[in-house]
Amino acid sequence: xxxxxxxxxxxxxxxxxxxxxxxxxxxxxxxxxxxxxxxxxxxxxxxxxxxxxxxxxxxxxxxxxxxxxxxxxxxxxxxxxxxxxxxxxxxxxxxxxxxxxxxxxxxxxxxxxxxxxxxxxxxxxxxxxxxxxxxxxxxxxxxxxxxxxxxxxxxxxxxxxxxxxxxxxxxxxxxxxxxxxxxxxxxxxxxxxxxxxxxxxxx
Length: 203
What we know:
- This protein has helices at 3-40, 65-79, 87-93, 100-120, 188-193, 195-202, and strands spanning 45-47, 56-58, 123-134, 139-149, 155-169, 172-182.
- The protein is an alpha+beta fold.
- The strands form two sheets. It has a four-stranded antiparallel sheet, covered by helices on one side. A two-stranded antiparallel ribbon has the order 1-2.
- Helix 3 runs antiparallel to helix 4.
- The longest helix is centred in the first third of the chain and has 38 residues, at 3-40.
- The chain is elongated and about 100 Å long.
- The N and C termini lie far apart (109 Å).
């Protein structure tokens, strides 16, 4: 037997095993890093419906302004067109749109308004003409004409605004704050221009 050849072969095998051991450790570490990266990555859904030209993006905890504006317009259209016959449908349809606390308040208000309209024979119609998203405050404003139609068919029209703060949690939009008032959207610019009027009104 050639002892030298055997010695070299055995030593080479040991070096190969050692190299494979380090290679396996390196691959295991790489797999762990990739797995962690995948688990931490939050997918962003990009939606371009056929009737909307803007690109809407919905992430795990955020969305782009086009998504916020579209969602706010959807909810405002429901709220602005309530009548006694559809109040139950509107209330159920918006059950997942508001936070749990705010939904209870909104549901009670919808039921109350519907009962008032049933008694008086009135109904509401809302026509949005402007949707504004304010990046600094994360507020979305849906402004337009609110028509109150009497039982006799008479129409009273006024400018109104629906104001929303929408939170995105786990890819789902939820309205955390809501306000409804007559007039123009109360953006930061509007509040700055009308700050003296607002102060006088509170005194």
